[in-house]
Amino acid sequence: MIPFKKYFLRKQFKKKLIENEIHRVVSQNKIKTVAIITTDEISSWINVQEEVENNLNIKDAKVYSFKTHKKYHNEAFVYFSEQDFNWKGNIYNPNFKDFIEEPVDLLIGYFSKNNIYIESAVLQSKALFKVGISGVNQQLYDIEIAETPSKTDSFFLELKKYLTMLKKLEN
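^ that's the sequence the OP posted. Answer follows.
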């Protein structure tokens, strides 16, 4: 059943991607609020929230991690799964939906492998500025950084440099 769901989700994703490109306006606001979308795998070996808060001098960054759905759940951190999306790509989980619909100043897509559910979440986010790791889907982001998730220091050093140049961060 999931392969059919992925097929329809990809179809809706492509349609929303085109609409997003037409209506996308890049914000000139300074970065005060940050949201991060990552994977369970990355979250298990890197505290992305702490890295963002320390490197960008931001407080209260919010994180959601993608985790493949299983009958038993680990409630140790906030996550979403393929079960939180319907066939049209709409989000069921009210907490995750609130996260996606919150107009944060910066969304960081901290993942390096294609995943229609994670990419759909980034696409649907109401974030005013989106940054991610290159090689996933360049149409999702305003800035892409060519780095692997394991090199957090390098990624966040580059991110800080670009955000400072764009005058989105204070020196």
